Amino acid sequence: MRExxxxxxxxxxxxxxxxxxxxxxxxWIVLMGFLxxxxxxxxxxxxxxxxMALVGDAISHSLLPGITIAFLLTNSRDTLPMMLGAxxxxxxxxxxxxxxxxxxxxxxxxxxxxVFSSLFAIGVILISAFADKIDLDxxxxxxxxxxxIPLQDVVMFGGMEIGPEPVVxxxxxxxxxxxxxxxxxxxxxxxxxxxxxxxxxGINPTRYQYGLTLFLSVVIVSSFESVGVVLVIAMIIFPGAxxxxxxxxxxxxxxxxxxxxxxxxxxxFHLATWLEASIAGGMTVIAGFIxxxxxxxxxxxxxxxxxxxxxxxxxxxxxxx
Amino acid sequence: xxRTGKQILFALALxxxxxxxxxxxxxxxxxxxxxxxxxxFFTMQQPIVxxxxxxxxxxxxxxxxxxxxxxxxxxxxxxxxxxHAVLPGVAMGFLxxxxxxxxxxFVGATAAGILGVALVGWIKxxxxxxxxxxxxxxxxxxxxxxxxxxxxxxNMAMGNKSGLDKFFFGQAAALSSxxxxxxxxIALITVVVILGxxxxxxxxxxxxxxxxxxxxxxxxxxxxxxxxxxxxVVVSLQAVGVVLVSALLITxxxxxxxxxxxxxxxxxLAAAFGMLAGAIGAFVSYLSNNLPTGPFIVLGxxxxxxxxxxxxxxxGLLPKMLRRRKQRQRIxxxxxxxxxxxLSESSQFKDQVFEIGRLATERxxxxxxxxxxxxxxxxxxMASRLDSRNGPEMSGQAQFExxxxxxxxxxxxxxxxxxxxxYLTNAAQYPIDHVHxxxxxxxxxxxxxxxxxxxxxxxxxxxxxxxKLIPNRESIKL
Lengths: 321, 478
Description:
The complex is a heterodimer. Chain A is 78% helix and 3% strand.
């Protein structure tokens, strides 16, 4: 218990101690943070390009009833039923949004809002109503906490200890994301930028749209435990959006977003250690901070460059009479 | 259509789930009947109920009105952004004097909300990022800061009594009388500002370019609206929670949008729907004792929206379906009449009585289908059966004749068809063998006025391009 909001900054306790005294835990937590934000960022690049950012927000909220119902049906917290419930919820969200859009004159933005809030409400009610039976906590789903991920269950493979189960799971999801990215990069590129061209090349844009939605649900459900349903949106949007301020090339943007993810995980962890705050929250604060820096100081598109250009231009264009 | 229907069914099924869930709950706790509790609740005898219900009604009212502007401006999710963005402000206000002082929290949250909305606009203006990414970033970024601060506060000495968790899911019972005062003031300000500047808000919502050309202070008005919205969101937080405030802004307004095309009616309806949802939510939460209020208010609003979506007179799915069905029936009826006309025409209009079997041959239909068509005609008072000596049904020998109104309509349809064919060949230079299909469609939709104009334009023709008679006003009498 402490009295002040900002504790004294002490280099040793913030930056050194976590790596000397609890080195193992710190390592797994930072790695998990990086895996989560890296995978989210990878998918996020495409989500941003397709203007699906708020659909992602909607999906992340509607996961709550999905996993709750899956939990009530199977009565277990195994990965598979949770994953299936979440995917079903993600697909249902997108289908409902489309249904409202097509059957009425409601605009897509309002349709998104109506669908996700209703589904989220259902989830909250289910959790509160079955509070005694459910081992899920709505607040835990909302916040998520990297510090609380279970590190005891170690996955063994071929007699070797690989790592804690959640970290290994997230790493697998990340590898799948990379695999999918490498195999469908061209298709995703074309369908993201020019669905018409894609269709004329024989690539079905709708199929890739749904594919991305599905995978987005998978990524969100595997991340929410660590970062919570709202901050997963930060992890999806921030790396890509920051990278896209620096470059116009998608491959470069993807590399940059991965780099940013690593920064979020590392710096966010230390910020949270200093403040004794939520690690996911700390990562988001760092993400926002880095975005702010890039927004102001990016070489081509930064505010500073823009102002400088404008000042220069007005000098040249309007010479003194 | 079929797919949509299934999806809607699925949504309804999902909606039913929570009600099942809390039905079990009520069974455990209630000794009095449902109606007793309703009376108890709505007469507001207990002060805590009075606060909760008044609060929910006021919240529904404010959010309904202000949300309407968001929905028509396609900015619905700005409400969502706003509700998440106020979180650091709430924490800041709490830190100010370490208690749940509504005014301190109000000031902090409003500042954070307005900063968030301003940032959305600013990032959008100065970068090439799209609106949705911008909103998502502000939403999640501010929320992250808020989470950081609340976790810190909970670790601090005064954190235990913070009650900050109420801001996430909302409990109308957590509203204090101070909150009600604040809510009433906000409602009053909202009404005064909206009524005072109704015309201006209307113009910037539908055509901000025009508003600018008129010299209206578009930016000032926009931020005034955003400030009002922030007020409404902030005061609603405790009753419905961060995530669900946006639903209160969007859903009642969207339901109203389905029912009317007039902005002032939309405002009235949205306010009414918001209040109804608030009352429903507060009541259900009261019934179920320990469940949060917010989600029930949201589901109440969603229920209203679904009703509007299904049964709204003009845009509702059901009325639309009925209208379409009615039109299909009318077209089928008119096609039968046309066939009868052709039968009569083939005998130089000598036959006035027809056998069903011949009509079936003419229409290329089975006897059974033709029977039912005639039945429909009789029902519409356009034909009458003559005798049923030869066994009334299915013999093909049964006879019928058209009534006066039947004849009149049959002639009209044929006139429409042939007139249109003539118009296409003469005025639009269609080749003569291309006009039939087009006329087949349009004959059912030509109005009296248009027919008149075409007749005039073609100088009251007598024959169509195929040389057949165009029945006109005189010959229609037959």
